[in-house]
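Researcher: Please translate sequence to structure tokens.
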Amino acid sequence: MIDALQFEFMQNALAAGLLASVICGIMGTLVVVNRIVFLSGGIAHAAYGGIGLAFFFNWPFLLGTIGFSLFAAMLMAAISHTIKHRADTIIGVIWALGMAFGIILIDISPGYNVDLMSYLFGSILAVPRSDLFFMILVGVVMTILVVYYYKDLLAMSYDEEFARIRGVPVRTLYFGLIGMLAVTIVLVIQVVGLILVIALLTIPPFIVEKYANTLVQMMVASSLLGALLTIMGLWLSYRYNLTSGASIIMVSGIVFLISLVIDKIRLIAYK
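Model: Translation complete:
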């Protein structure tokens, strides 16, 4: 891996992966403890509608995709907050419609031949330095917001009723969290792809949740684990000439399964 870092594209890929790990470690922790993994997956897939809009109307990628994703995310947030017993079904419908809408718009866009697979698995080896600076900016802004609202997010994440009694504007905070999640997903999708975003958002926080005592510890540990999985995946992709995004996902999935086996063994041992 060390010799691979002599190439600029590998340096950029490693930096993008580490930045994505930190961003997803922080947001993924909030996703897992608030149990909105399915909603985050819905936002990620619905983002295809924004990609289609951007190509069809020849808009900047971020303008079309973030706009559509925020609309879809707010709709999903409203549904999940008010019609909880039917939320998963309706979110699934929005998820499917968003993808179908985007793909059809791309199909009928004149003069474009878009590789949809690149949005699934990303092009982490082709990340330019300009995207890295943008990811740093997003990471800094997101971290500042999470730190500023940390106590309110903590209260809402673990006891919504208690948060309301404390005077926390739960509904406003929840919509803000979903909006921040939507922006994060879109920004990271264009770098590492839709599937890797979901993997980094969910797998590291799920693994470290049982070992962390505080929300901050969980965020830090999730970021570090995500970074480790990214490095391992990139090394495998370089060593064996594999697709980078898929390699990172496979490594994450294997570690996830190992953690489940360890949990099962520990449970049996305690009995």
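Researcher: Any highlights?
Model: The mean pLDDT is 86.
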